[in-house]
Design a protein that fits this description.
By secondary structure, the protein is mainly α. It is 54% helix and 4% strand. It contains five helices and two strands.
């Protein structure tokens, strides 16, 4: 078993960098979509739950234009979404209804789905590129704080 314990205790710096970069990235993504942060979190919660089963060692649909089809999206219940985001049901319900009204989210059976067509919109493609840039920035900032990914960096 490999020991990934850093030689230097930089946990507080890492937490500070991580929190700053994640909040900055979420705010940028919300602004790009012209939403508030909660609406962005609800949207992201739905689509990430829909495609969670596609993550892992055999990553499928990895390229920018290789969007998982609707047949690969698993609906998430509103209750599971509220639990995942640690938000009250009434707040989730209000934002879900707004996203449905915008044609961003659909009800499928007892669950919620962000259809694949939503991800072909230019603003969504821009958002994906922005998110990728934010991940690169996060990795750089973490390395700057002394965090090691254990990959010989």
């Amino acid at each position: 078993m490999t020991d990934h314990t850093p030689n230097l205790d930089n946990r507080r710096a890492t937490a500070r960098v991580m929190t700053h970069e994640v909040l900055r990235g979420l705010a940028a993504m919300a602004r790009l979509a012209q939403w508030d942060m909660i609406q962005f979190l609800v949207f992201s919660g739905v689509w990430s739950a829909n495609t969670q089963h596609l993550m892992g060692p055999k990553v499928r649909y990895a390229e920018l234009n290789d969007i998982p089809p609707d047949s690969q999206r698993r609906p998430v219940s509103q209750a599971a979404l509220a639990d995942m985001l640690c938000l009250p049901d009434d707040i989730i319900a209000r934002y879900v209804e707004a996203l449905i009204a915008q044609g961003i989210v659909e009800r499928v059976g007892d669950g919620l789905v962000v259809p694949s067509a939503v991800f072909t919109r230019p603003e969504m493609m821009d958002g994906n590129n922005e998110l990728y840039a934010r991940v690169i920035s996060l990795v750089s900032a973490l390395r700057g704080a002394g965090f090691s990914f254990g990959d010989g960096d």
